[in-house]
Design a protein that fits this description.
3-stranded antiparallel β-sheet, alpha+beta
Length: 1904
């Protein structure tokens, strides 16, 4: 078929006559059908030609070409290749033709039916959420789309969800990349068998049409491309072209999605070489085709590529030929100088030649393989499409199209080969790109799909030389940024290194290429080819050597460096990614014996490269001073391959080691780094700025240590095990610059180090030796032991979360190596060494995460300070580990004092490294140890406990690793006798320990005390007082009195080096190399030194015993333990010595020494027998005495200060406890507020600003610090107990109409429809939504003090978190957030006592008094003419209260601004605060007591303010509801006369609690208790009647009749007014007169509960109806009169509260069951007043029976408010919401969020949903929570709180299995709800304490 198509496409055909004229409208479908029929005939030439001509015309590229030729104006005018009608027309034609006359959609469906969907292959772009399962993955890059993941079974697997950075594709169904067990249900079946064969005619048209279509696309691409001018980036033009082509590419993309059948047609079209040749050759008379071909050639040329037609030979033959002519010989001779072509000069066009710093180096182009870099030949559409894709910098659409085709196997191979062929071109484009980040991601998006497949990678490696190409391309890329190395020999160095300041390194541009390289090296077959290919290894080592010695640091000695360069980031990243990771990839294939050859190859070429490097930098034996580079990748390659060879391949180490001279050179630079680390930590590099510290930290940091410090130390260990130990030890001390310090003399001069650095450098040198000798990471530990040691070290520093442990433990840094973090061994080791501490919640404390903490036995046996020191980035971590260790020992009672780091037994050494232990048995080290012990004993300067600790550690190591049996006479050392032979006879530490040294000759400055003596005195201690002489140095000398030689470490080292060099060079008959020591100052410049002889008479053992005395502070404190208990020598491991301080350490060492040799044991006993003479006290001179006194005085002052501070701290603590535990409003020790002290005559307040106490007065009022906030918490109460769930499917929705706020809203609007507005506004309360809640911290201040405090805040610029202009501040005492001051009403408590006395007036008298008091015109207590400060403040605070909430929550009146509105608002504020307090107490008052909320409450003050303002509005006496409650109206019918006016609200529709607040606030304050009780009694009668009415409406007809009857019988009993039956029957008979009960249809009955009403259930209903009122009233009484609330059981709450309120007569007996009606106390005859009330209802229900009934049934029992219930697993929320579209803009939001109060889905920061500059979350927080919003951010799993104009991140309520948050879902592990955290969140919401508890607030500027 393809052949026929190709024939048809042939050359351009003459137009066919039978086609209709172009002008006519064509019937596409008919034409298509006709053509299809024509093509189906056996002889289809005519049809083919006809189709051909049609396509020519439809897809003609003429039109856009002409436009492009006219330049951009035409394009702009719309004539160009814009997505005009022509393009759309063409697409329509194509669709019709493909479908062959049928419908296109049906065609798609038909093709899809033949899809053998064995692979998913879904392609995604950046930010897509995908999954990776390490359990199922074969390749570490494996990824699955969410659908395949959830349809597969991954329970218990190690998987995570991740956000794709570069894009990717789903691997489900691809068994090369993942195990089949992980396939999802759709892709499990190998479905090729059961898919029917594709009918021939279905896709026939496609085979004809598509080649033309793709060619047309290519022509557009050629056409649109213009070479960018030199300096103008042309992204704009490219993007324009791409936008025009969007529909065409999308069309192709849709085709790929039709499944396998269509993909195979496309593959045919794309790879068919004949088609390509015929269509694109540009031959023939078609001008536009010619022109297009020319453009293509120009584009090729400008890319620095040649079109191979004009060359006779070009590198790549036809891919089908299988092999390639590119042989290796080109590489074998390459010596690393690979040329750079002229074409790449264009990189410098931007003029930033190497960033203006150092000149770039260009290498000669000697052996560049031209064919790889510069030849491209396109033979198919696919190849040219890829070429343009690269040219256009990988447009996303094109990438997606090319990747969508990958499930087609044939295409996959062809595409991979094409990709490899263009690899060099990709690199060149990438280097020039301005958008290299985006481009890198797109490249990796493609390459990771191709190279993760081992089979494919192997095939391409064999057929297209993939490895050669990659290595060459990388090398070529790095060559563009080389500079001359300044290491060692600045002038003559021939070495070049990469310049870390170049954009290429700074921006990580090389990343995609290196990543591909690492990826293919992870395949064994490919890596083996690499390791076998010598030419490639040579080239690769050349590449690595570009990084050797990069980013050189030179120590600044004078000025501080001006500009701190940050290039070190680039340098470390480059070494890790470009050198170390490929190395780990290669190492992962060298695990078995059979791979020895590979290691030998690598080691061989590595050593050659190192030798070249030493030659290039002119290195002999001395490193240049004051410079260091942290980058030695060649050393590290060498070290790691050595380690692998010994550990896994059983290679003989010596067979791969070089000669001694090379080893000496190898050790210099790594040792230099270790010394520099010590210098940096000693602050010797401070003038280089902070960045040098950054480098030192990065070098040991967990992600780098495996590839940096570990190989370095291992290499030093190898060198030390093979070199002469004396040479090595002296080299160490010389590098650390402390040679001069190691003298017996009390003074010395150091030529290379300042005095203040000596101590820390000495510590550094000894610590390094300890690490070198005790670290076993590469010397014999197994992988599990290493993991355990690493984990213990990290856990000892600090408790860690699981994720930080994973991060801190250096895993094999190559992510592709198959060693997985979090693998099973990790978890098992973790559970073995650590205990899990579940997250704890202190309310108000910070949210804790789940932590792992070391088990006790780990501290006891495994704590290893050496490992901790090696792994700490910050020095403080070492201290932290020691502090934790100390705490453990104290707690477990093992050691009370300050312990020293414990000595830990080491894993045995691998036999290959036994030589390392010779370091411990060399005389040089023994001399150093002896000297240091002596100096410590003599208290010389600059020695610390740390030095002693390390010295003892080294001695103990030596004893542990001594030779098997000790020969007392050691063979004398061959060769000339050296000066240190005069110190010790042999080199075994065990025997040297007992060797006595009598005299030592030292060189000292002339000022030293030793010089002044003529002859040796009997003891040497008295004259060794440490004088402070100015010491300027020269190399230190010392000697023994026996010989005249002076011993010098440096001289020793030089001599050794010379010998070795002479030995190796005399064998090679070479001239001895000159020493390069001219870098050091000439010895003549040193100050005068003179020789003195010291009498010592000590051995190491005697020094140790004296140290024991010194440390313990007692004479003769050491007594050999074996004298008492001979067992000790037989069973030496005694646990008591494991932990302890220096004394314990000394005892342990002496015991080990005694164990190892009988001689030592005898000598120790001897030394102890000689009673040590007491050390004579030093003669103290006057000057010294003065300093001592000073010290003592200082000490005493310090102690006094400590004492004061402690006292202050305890005071502060007790204050904190009493005053302000803000964080938990539950358990406070309350602040007393005035109302609590009845005996004082006037309330006294303390001002927390000026500190004065006094009453609040009219002129100088005091106020409470309060926070006013609008709250909608009350409105969120619902009537059902089940909390609402967050919707997680489309079906679940939350409707707000059952919330308290909604119900109250409906009620008010219903009343306003039928009744007079002013009367409606008195019948209800508002504030369920947007009510104002007032809370206080309980502190008071003068209002004038507060004003000046606010002024000072306003002038203070450093304000964070709150806005002073809005009146916000923090309480000056407890720092609680506040925004207003509530004035305290001046008044004495005495009068309130008077008011509280019970009076014996009758209720009728009291009712009259109340009415009179209410009738008085309101006024402020003082005459209104003189406005006082107090009244002003009262007004201003009222303004604040109003402004706290939005206007819509205040104005409910129909006439705006009516006073009724203010009136309603004010009493509603009181209602809101009472209701909220009730909720804080749990919704009832059973707990009683003055709960803390009560004591801290400001309701009393608030009531005064509200009452004063309410009294300004008087209610007309005839409208006052009080009258309706307490008087009978004479003529009932008068109301019906004025029909046209709306009636007032019937009293039975009034909300009783609102009436209560109105009545009380209308009274003059303070209120008398008996008036209060009177009001409550009257209102209770109304409430009870309402309950009866509601009950009567609820029950059915026959119940009503029965009750009417029973009640009528008892009507004349004596207590008829207090019997609910009587009253109920009355209510029923009265209401029956109206239409209330008539309207009931049958449907109504269904609503009414069918339960039979028993007397008990009726009583319960009535009590429940009345309880909310009683609770609020009791709370109010408690605040106004300060009476405590009694506590009670729930069932007796009604009776207790009613008796507490005085409703129950005191003589009431509680024996028989309690009846609520007994609380009634009717002010007027009950029957009369009830019938009066019922009459109002009847007259209303005449007209509106339905509504009348609805208004009577009130819901009184609201449940407590709750946040929405969240699902157990976070994934259910995430999967539903992260792809959900926003209801406003119908796009998927970038940051979706969901409100946890009402479940609304919002866009965080979404500009699409902005309204009047408010983003959606802020807007929602105002509408839903009156300014408070709680949102769950879907993509981050975090909760964000919005409060007014501020917001804060609250934390997450979802934690993973290890109790950790996963903010931003970075780890992607499954998350589960943490119920405790959610409770805390809900608690803070209900108690309105977000502002107090959360500390990190910031302004959101309405942008959330």
């Amino acid at each position: 078929m393809a052949a026929a198509a190709a024939a048809a496409v042939g050359g351009p055909q003459p137009p066919q006559p039978e086609l209709p004229a172009p002008g006519l409208a064509l019937d596409k479908a008919a034409t298509a059908a006709h053509l299809k029929a024509a093509l189906s005939r056996p002889d289809n030439r005519a049809g083919a030609e006809e189709l051909q001509a049609l396509l020519e015309r439809v897809l003609s590229a003429e039109r856009p070409l002409a436009a492009a030729a006219d330049g951009e104006e035409a394009a702009a005018a719309g004539g160009g290749g814009g997505p005009g009608a022509a393009e759309e027309e063409a697409l329509e034609w194509c669709k019709c033709l493909l479908a062959g006359g049928g419908g296109y959609d049906e065609f798609c469906a038909a093709v899809r039916a033949y899809d053998p969907a064995a692979l998913c292959g879904l392609v995604w772009t950046a930010n897509f959420v995908a999954y990776r399962c390490r359990t199922c993955g074969i390749s570490p890059c494996m990824s699955l789309c969410a659908e395949c993941f959830h349809q597969g079974d991954h329970t218990g697997h190690d998987f995570n969800m991740f956000r794709s950075q570069a894009g990717g594709a789903c691997d489900c169904g691809d068994s090369n990349v993942m195990r089949e067990s992980g396939f999802c249900k759709r892709h499990q079946i190998k479905s090729s068998s059961n898919i029917p064969c594709v009918p021939k005619d279905l896709l026939m048209m496609s085979e004809f049409v598509l080649p033309r279509f793709i060619f047309c696309l290519i022509q557009y691409l050629r056409e649109g491309y213009n070479e960018p001018a030199a300096d103008v980036p042309s992204e704009k033009d490219l993007n324009k072209v791409l936008q025009l082509l969007e529909p065409q590419i999308s069309f192709l993309e849709d085709l790929t999605k039709m499944g396998g059948a269509m993909r195979s047609v496309l593959t045919q079209v794309l790879t068919n070489q004949q088609n390509y040749k015929d269509l694109t050759s540009g031959l023939g008379e078609n001008a536009c085709a010619k022109k297009s071909h020319e453009k293509y050639l120009i584009a090729l040329k400008s890319s620095g590529l040649t079109y191979p037609e004009d060359k006779l030979v070009y590198g790549l033959q036809e891919p089908s030929a299988g092999t390639s002519t590119l042989a290796v010989q080109g590489f074998a001779g390459a010596t690393g100088t690979l040329g750079q072509l002229d074409s790449s000069d264009e990189e410098d066009q931007d003029g930033s030649q190497g960033l203006g710093k150092r000149k770039r180096v260009k290498l000669s182009s000697s052996t560049k393989d031209q064919s790889i870099m510069d030849v491209l030949k396109h033979k198919s559409f696919l190849e040219e499409l890829l070429f343009w894709t690269i040219k256009y910098e990988f447009p996303q659409k094109m990438v997606t199209f090319l990747l969508n085709m990958l499930p087609d196997q044939e295409y996959k191979v062809a595409f991979t080969k094409t990709f490899v062929q263009h690899y060099a071109f990709i690199m060149k484009t990438l280097k020039k790109s301005h958008e290299s980040d985006t481009m890198s991601n797109r490249i990796v998006h493609i390459s990771v799909q191709l190279f993760s497949n081992e089979e494919l990678a192997r095939q391409v490696t064999e057929e297209c030389q993939l490895l050669d190409i990659m290595v060459t391309v990388l090398l070529y890329m790095m060559e563009s940024c080389l500079i001359k190395s300044e290491l060692q020999d600045e002038e003559n160095s021939l070495h070049v290194v990469v310049n870390c300041g170049e954009a290429l390194l700074k921006n990580n541009t090389y990343w995609p290429l290196v990543s591909d390289f690492i990826n293919i090296l992870s395949h064994q077959s490919v890596a083996k080819r690499f390791l076998e290919d010598h030419g490639l290894l040579v080239t690769w080592m050349n590449f690595v050597s570009f990084f050797q010695g990069m980013n050189l640091n030179k120590r600044e000695l004078n000025e501080h460096v001006e500009f701190e360069s940050q290039t070190y980031y680039a340098a470390f990243a480059a070494e890790l990614e470009a050198c170390a990771q490929p190395m780990w990839g290669l190492l992962s294939h060298c695990k078995v014996r059979e791979t020895q050859e590979y290691t030998r190859n690598v080691v061989r070429y590595c050593l050659e490269a190192l030798q070249d490097w030493f030659d290039a930098i002119n290195f002999v034996d001395e490193p240049a001073p004051n410079q260091v580079t942290f980058h030695l990748p060649l050393h590290r390659y060498y070290a790691m391959f050595l380690s692998k060879a010994v550990k896994c391949q059983e290679l003989d180490l010596d067979s791969v080691l070089p000669d001694q001279e090379m080893l000496m050179k190898l050790m210099i630079h790594p040792l230099q780094i270790q010394a520099s680390l010590a210098e940096i930590h000693s602050n010797m590099w401070v003038r280089n700025g902070l960045q040098i510290k950054g480098q030192a930290m990065t070098y040991v940091q967990s992600h780098f240590c495996n590839s940096m410090i570990d190989p370095d130390i291992y290499l030093l260990q190898v060198c030390a095990s093979r070199l002469d130990p004396d040479y090595f030890i002296s080299s160490v001390f010389e590098r650390f610059k402390v040679v001069d310090l190691l003298t017996m003399a009390s003074q010395h001069q150091n030529t290379v180090l300042d005095a203040e650095h000596e101590r820390s450098m000495l510590e550094g040198a000894l610590t390094f030796l300890v690490i070198l000798l005790s670290l076993r990471l590469h010397l014999g530990m197994s992988d599990d032991e290493i993991l355990r040691a690493e984990m213990v070290a990290q856990l000892c520093m600090n408790d860690r979360t699981h994720s930080s442990l994973l991060d801190l433990i250096p895993e094999n840094p190559n992510p592709k190596s198959g060693i997985i973090p979090g693998s099973y061994s990790f978890e098992s080791v973790l559970s073995a060494v650590a205990d899990f501490k579940a997250p704890v919640f202190e309310p108000g404390g910070s949210m804790q995460q789940g932590m792992y903490t070391p088990k006790a036995e780990v501290w006891d046996q495994e704590f290893d300070p050496v490992m901790v020191i090696l792994r700490t980035v910050y020095r403080r971590d070492v201290q932290s580990a020691m502090d934790r260790y100390t705490a453990f020992l104290k707690q477990s009672g093992k050691f009370p004092g300050n312990p020293w780091p414990p000595y830990k037994k080491r894993t045995p050494l691998h036999p290959s490294y036994k030589g390392l232990m010779r370091l411990l048995h060399c005389k040089t080290l023994h001399i150093v140890l002896f000297t240091l012990l002596y100096k410590i004993l003599m208290d010389h300067q600059n020695l610390s406990e740390h030095v002693l600790c390390m010295v003892l550690y080294l001695i103990e190591l030596g004893l542990e690793n001594s030779a098997e049996e000790e020969s007392d006479e050691e063979a004398s050392v061959c060769g000339p006798e050296r000066c240190h032979d005069s110190w010790f006879p042999g080199s075994n530490l065990v025997s040297n320990m007992r060797h006595f040294i009598n005299y030592v000759r030292v060189r000292v400055p002339e000022t030293a005390p030793e010089v002044k003596r003529d002859s040796p005195a009997s003891t040497s201690s008295d004259s060794l007082s440490s004088l402070h002489s100015s010491r300027r140095p020269k190399v230190l000398q010392r000697e023994n009195s026996g010989t005249a030689q002076v011993f010098s470490l440096v001289a020793e080292r030089r001599k050794k080096f010379q010998e070795i060099i002479n030995r190796s060079s005399s064998e090679a008959n070479q001239v001895v190399r000159p020493k390069t020591s001219n870098k050091w100052s000439a010895p003549g410049s040193a100050p005068q030194l003179t020789t003195a002889i010291l009498e010592i008479k000590e051995s190491i053992l005697s020094l140790l015993i004296k140290l024991h005395h010194k440390l313990s502070g007692k004479q003769n404190s050491y007594y050999p333990p074996w004298l008492d208990d001979i067992e000790i020598l037989i069973q030496p491991e005694i646990p008591k010595y494991n932990h302890g301080d220096g004394i314990t350490a000394v005892e342990r060492i002496l015991l080990k020494a005694a164990l190892q040799s009988r001689m030592n044991k005898r000598i120790i006993e001897e030394i102890c027998r000689k009673v040590t003479p007491p050390v004579p006290p030093k003669k103290i001179t006057a000057a010294e005495k003065k300093t001592l006194d000073k010290e003592e005085r200082r000490q005493k002052a310090r102690e006094r200060q400590q004492k004061l501070l402690a006292e202050f701290a305890s005071r502060q603590k007790s204050f904190m406890e009493t005053a302000m535990d803000v964080d938990s409003p539950e358990n406070d020790i309350p602040m007393e507020i005035a109302t609590a002290e009845p005996q004082v005559s006037e309330a006294v307040y303390d001002c927390v600003i000026c500190g004065q106490s006094g009453p609040s007065s009219e002129d100088r009022p005091t106020g409470l610090v309060v926070l006013l906030q609008a709250s909608s918490v009350l409105g969120q109460c619902r009537d059902n107990i089940e909390p609402k769930k967050l919707p997680i499917t489309e079906e679940e929705q939350i409707y707000p109409w059952d919330t308290c706020a909604a119900v109250h809203d409906v009620r008010l609007s219903l009343l306003q429809r039928y009744f007079k507005d002013s009367s409606c506004l008195l019948a209800v309360s508002i504030g369920w939504e947007g009510g104002v809640y007032v809370q206080t911290c309980g502190h008071t201040l003068h209002i004038d003090c507060h004003k000046s405090y606010m002024e000072s805040l306003r002038n203070d610029q450093v304000l964070q978190g709150f806005s002073v202009d809005k009146g916000e501040f923090t309480c000056p005492l407890c720092r609680q957030f506040a925004n207003s001051v509530l004035p305290c009403y001046p008044g004495s408590n005495v009068e309130s006592n008077l008011w509280q006395r019970p009076s014996n007036k009758s209720i009728q008298d009291l009712i009259k008094e109340v009415e009179e008091l209410q009738g008085r015109p309101g006024a402020f207590p003082v005459s209104i003419s003189s406005e006082t400060n107090l009244s002003k403040e009262m007004e201003s605070v009222m303004k604040d209260i109003k402004n706290t909430t939005q206007k819509k929550y205040r104005d409910y009146s129909k006439t705006p601004g009516s006073p009724d509105n203010d009136f309603l608002f004010m009493y509603s504020v009181a209602r809101t605060n009472l209701e909220l307090e009730l909720i804080h107490r749990g919704g009832n008052l059973c707990s009683g007591g003055a709960s803390t909320a009560g004591k801290r409450s400001c309701l009393n003050q608030l009531f005064h303010v509200l009452a004063l303002h309410m009294r300004l509005y008087s209610i007309d006496s005839e409208y006052n509801p009080w009258r309706k409650l307490t008087q009978l109206v004479e003529e009932m019918n008068s109301q019906q006369g004025n029909e046209e006016q709306q009636p007032e609200v019937p009293i039975l529709y009034h909300d009783v609690t609102s009436l209560l607040l109105i009545q009380i606030l209308m009274m003059p304050q303070p209120l008398r208790k008996d008036h209060f009780t009177c009001i409550v009694k009257v209102l209770f009668t109304l409430l009870y009647t309402q309950a009866l009415v509601a009950l009567s409406v609820k029950c059915n007809e026959e119940d009503r009749l029965a009750w009417k009857h029973t009640g009528a019988l008892k009507k004349n009993a004596c207590d008829a007014e207090k019997s609910y039956e009587v009253l109920l029957s009355l209510v029923i008979s009265e209401l029956s007169k109206g239409k209330l009960y008539h309207e009931e249809g049958t449907q109504e009955c269904a609503m009414v509960s069918p339960i039979a009403w028993s007397p008990e259930s009726m009583e319960k209903y009535l009590q429940d109806f009345c309880l909310p009122f009683l609770r609020i009233t009791s709370l109010l009484q408690h605040h106004l009169f300060g009476e405590d609330l009694p506590s009670c059981q729930e069932e007796e709450e009604f009776s207790v509260l009613s008796s507490c309120l005085g409703l129950l007569p005191t003589f009431y007996q509680t024996e028989h069951p309690f009846i609520s009606a007994s609380c009634l106390d009717w002010p007027v005859p009950a029957f009369d007043i009830i019938s009066q009330w019922c009459f109002e209802i009847n007259s209303f229900t005449e007209r509106h029976a339905e509504q009348g009934k609805a208004l009577l049934i009130q819901e009184s029992r609201w449940k407590l408010p709750h946040l929405l219930q969240l699902p157990e697993n976070y994934n259910t929320i995430f999967q539903y919401y992260h792809r959900k579209t926003c209801s406003v803009c119908t796009k998927v939001p970038k940051d979706p969020a969901v409100c946890l109060v009402c479940g609304t889905f919002v866009c965080l920061k979404g500009l699409c949903c902005k309204q009047q500059s408010y983003c959606e979350c802020v807007l929602h927080s105002q509408n839903c929570g009156a300014g408070t919003g709680i949102f769950l951010l879907i993509n981050a799993s975090v909760i964000i709180i919005i409060r007014g104009h501020r917001f804060c991140l609250w934390g997450s309520v979802y934690l993973d299995a290890h109790g950790e948050e996963d903010r931003d879902l970075r780890r992607g592990k499954p998350l589960y709800i943490c119920k405790e955290r959610y409770k805390v969140l809900e608690q803070q919401w209900i108690s309105h304490t977000f502002d107090h508890i959360n500390k990190r607030w910031g302004p959101h500027y309405n942008g959330l």
